[in-house]
Design a protein that fits this description.
Blueprint lengths: L17 E3 L9 E2 L2 H13 L1 E9 L12 E7 L2 E5 L8 H7 L4 E3 L6 H6 L7 E3 H7 L7 H9 L1 E3 L15 H12 L1 H14 L3 H11 L24 H21 L3 H4 L2 H10 L15 H9 L1 H13 L21 H4 L1 H21 L3 H4 L2 H8 L8 H10 L4 H17 L4
Parallel strand pairs: 1-8, 2-5, 3-6, 6-7
Antiparallel strand pairs: 3-4, 4-5
Length: 418
């Protein structure tokens, strides 16, 4: 089916938003024992239709991304709030859901932590991703609920410490309301996608999410430390590595966010000050009071890690940067491969125009990394089918290749290789 763009028309007057403050069934008690969990599973099994699911984590407070509250709602079963710390195995609920569709918002944020407690979908609908395909300029849950349902969700508890116990009543109310609206939102998004001829696109995207198991592990994750770009010596980079790894061990042991143990700025500051040092100072400190407090709390461990970095032989120091594993930055293409640069520029132009026409973000039409990987030193005269199969081999969905492959073929034909 040929997709049509989202309608830009808006009603002359938008009716006032209705604040959503109380769940229709009230705020349920939190499930904290296995007997009640089995009652939850039974209720879910006897319900009908898709199951709205959400999870709350303690990002910025705890180590890792585990779930500290799981919310479910299904027609005929009501809303359930489950404490996965008290009952860490939710597989009975997963079995009760069976083949029923999950409704999530921004599924990749929750799928991993839900799998850790025994919940894995067999079918799903991601309202956030559906909103992107439908052409919405804002796809946060609150914005989409306002757009489609005319309701206003309070979001003041979205970044609280969900590992706190007991959980305050206002937080539980917020959590219950998040799944309260997902069913109606799913239906509204699905109707919009059908109107635009994008239902099949969404189905492909949602099916691909069933295999999602988290982002690929990074090589040398410590290289993402903010401020590392200021370090100019391999010795300084070694200091960053030792301090980052120390911080990670401490954070894991304390079950706290690494940034609460030692901010990135403190790591970078110490490394910058000692990237050419041969001796260890008696004390480490910082002119920034906040950083100084973090350093003082971990003084001895930091000095030991610094000593380890300064004692490393030259041949054991890490490189300043890792060798590239993919295409170079696009700004370097013109000098290194003018044909590839011209193809990339033209393909971006064509994809950008179609993105506007279909009201789909260009990164959803085709991941920019896939476009660069294909075009860098690409075939001399690839056909549309060859491009499509190559992109699928790199992870693109077939609907994406239907849109993007003909445009890439045009870019390649307009800038042939000799």
């Amino acid at each position: 089916m040929t997709a049509v763009p989202a309608s830009p028309d808006e009603p002359a007057e938008t009716p006032p938003l209705v604040p959503l403050t109380v769940p229709r069934d009230g705020v349920p008690d939190v499930v904290v024992d296995e007997r009640v969990l089995l009652r939850c599973a039974e209720a879910v099994a006897n319900g009908s239709g898709p199951v709205a699911i959400d999870a709350e984590r303690a990002s910025g407070y705890r180590y890792g991304q585990r779930a500290y509250l799981v919310q479910l709602r299904r027609k005929g079963a009501g809303t359930w709030l489950i404490d996965p710390v008290a009952v860490p195995d939710l597989s009975p609920v997963g079995e009760a859901i069976g083949d029923a569709e999950w409704i999530l918002h921004a599924a990749t944020q929750d799928l991993v932590c839900l799998a850790e407690v025994g919940l894995r979908p067999r079918a799903l609908f991601d309202t956030e991703l559906g909103g992107r395909l439908a052409g919405l300029p804002r796809v946060g849950l609150g914005a989409m609920v306002e757009h489609y349902l005319g309701l206003q969700l309070a979001k003041e508890h979205s970044a609280v410490d969900w590992s706190a116990r007991p959980l305050p009543e206002p937080w539980l109310l917020y959590a219950a309301l998040d799944v309260e609206v997902l069913g109606d939102l799913r239906d509204a998004v699905a109707a919009d996608l059908a109107r635009q001829g994008k239902s099949a696109w969404a189905e492909e995207e949602f099916a691909s999410l069933l295999e999602f198991s988290g982002p690929e592990p990074r090589v040398d994750p410590w290289r993402r430390t903010s401020g590392i770009h200021k370090i100019r010596t391999r010795r300084g980079v070694a200091v960053v590595r030792e301090l980052w790894q120390l911080r990670d061990r401490i954070a894991r042991q304390r079950d706290t966010s690494p940034g609460r143990v030692l901010p990135d700025a403190a790591i970078a500051e110490i490394a910058l000050a000692h990237q050419r040092s041969e001796s260890i100072p008696r004390t480490l400190s910082s002119p920034d009071p906040r950083l100084a407090r973090s350093i003082r709390r971990n003084q001895e461990a930091l000095r030991e890690a610094l000593a380890d970095a300064l004692a490393l032989p030259e041949d054991e120091l890490p490189p300043l940067t890792l060798p590239p594993t993919g295409p170079p930055p696009p700004k370097a293409w013109a000098d290194r491969d003018p044909v590839a640069a011209a193809r990339l520029t033209r393909a971006r132009e064509l994809l950008g125009a179609v993105s506007e026409e279909l009201a789909v973000p260009v990164e959803n039409l085709l991941t920019p990394d896939l476009l660069r990987r294909f075009l860098w030193e690409g075939p001399a005269a690839p056909t549309t089918d060859e491009i499509a199969e190559a992109l699928i081999g790199m992870g693109a969905r077939r609907w994406q290749t239907t849109v993007a492959a003909p445009l890439i073929a045009v870019a390649c034909s307009e800038h042939p290789r000799s």
